[in-house]
Design a protein that fits this description.
The protein is α/β, with parallel strands linked by helices and 307 residues long. 34% of the residues lie in helices and 20% in strands. The protein has a single domain, classed as 3-Layer(aba) Sandwich (Aminopeptidase), CATH 3.40.630. The longest helix is centred in the N-terminal third of the chain and has 21 residues, at 18-38.
Length: 307
């Protein structure tokens, strides 16, 4: 469950590289647009959903991707997942999905949950836009992850994963990027569901890689690659789905279809006091640390895709 390859980084950070500074600035720009200028985005604020779709589509389009919409209706209202694809070379039939939900819970602007994840997705798509990859990589922005659609058939990722299974698509790995923007060096700032507080750090300065038992090989490979390339604290877990928090994102939908999938997260409510509140605003996030995380995740995706 908790034994992971290599070791989590400890020690001080070096100044951001020029590359990482650019990542930091773009992440902040994306979050400020989604959670600042656009704000709340859900079916009760359809203008927010529509503006988010337009923004995500434009960013990906400007990077040279063709964006496909997977449209469906919920409570009589149109919603859509957005997909941008890089076709692989020698292993094009094997697919790596990088996903993040772009909706926010009712009553919140959703900066960390989950504009941070969408920003990460967009940056990884940019950083890999010209890299030759053996496997196909899909960047997917999901709608309707938040309640009341969470863990239901109306969840955007559930609709997407079900379609992938019906089509017989060979998804070899799925990464759900979920709330990756908040960190603290205060002792006691990190909490866990029982009994993990006995095994993991009490300081909220790391990024987490979380999967179920069936996805444990993916957890280990992803965190191993991250630790090899990234000087940033990281923790991994492969645990039963019934443990609180283990299935709390879009990776759950892929588990239902038998695909290996993991969540990459700052652990959300287990460290972030503004989770699912109106105070989840862009100024609360640490974009420098998030840039380090996203840079590392880019190497994880490249490794999984066989660059």
């Amino acid at each position: 469950m908790i034994d992971m390859p290599k070791s989590s980084y400890t020690g001080s950070f070096q100044p951001l590289s020029e590359y990482e500074v650019q990542v930091r600035d773009r992440l902040e720009r994306h979050v400020s647009m989604l959670a600042g200028e656009i704000g709340e985005r859900n079916i009760w604020h359809p203008q927010g959903l529509e503006a988010s779709v337009d923004y995500i589509e434009k960013v990906l389009g400007d990077l040279g991707y063709q964006v496909e919409m997977q449209e469906y209706k919920v409570e009589g209202k149109p919603v859509a997942n957005l997909e941008a694809e890089r076709i692989g070379t020698s292993l094009a039939g094997e697919i790596v999905v990088v996903g993040a939900h772009y909706d926010s819970v009712f009553g919140t602007p959703g900066a960390n949950d989950n504009a941070s994840g969408v920003a990460g997705l967009l940056e990884i798509a940019r950083l890999l836009a010209t890299e030759e990859l053996s496997r196909t990589v899909r960047f997917v922005a999901f709608v309707n992850e938040e309640p009341p659609f969470f863990l239901t058939g109306d969840m955007g990722s559930r609709v997407y994963a079900s379609r992938s299974r019906r089509r017989g698509e060979d998804i070899v790995a799925m990464l759900s990027i979920e709330t990756i923007g908040y960190y603290s060096e205060v002792s006691g700032s990190q909490h866990y569901p029982f009994p993990f507080s006995y095994f993991y750090p009490t300081t909220a300065n790391f990024i987490g890689f979380v999967g179920n038992f069936s996805s444990r090989r993916l957890v280990r490979r992803a965190i191993g690659t991250f630790r090899e390339h990234t000087r940033f604290p990281s923790e991994g877990l492969a645990a039963p789905e019934w443990i609180t928090g283990v299935g709390w994102s879009d990776h759950w939908s892929f588990w239902q279809e038998g695909y290996p999938a993991i969540m990459v997260t700052d652990t959300a409510l287990f460290r972030y006091d503004h989770y699912h509140t109106p105070q989840d605003t862009p100024d609360k996030l640490d974009y420098a640390r998030t840039a380090r995380v996203v840079s590392g995740l880019t190497r994880v995706v490249a490794d999984l895709a066989g660059s």
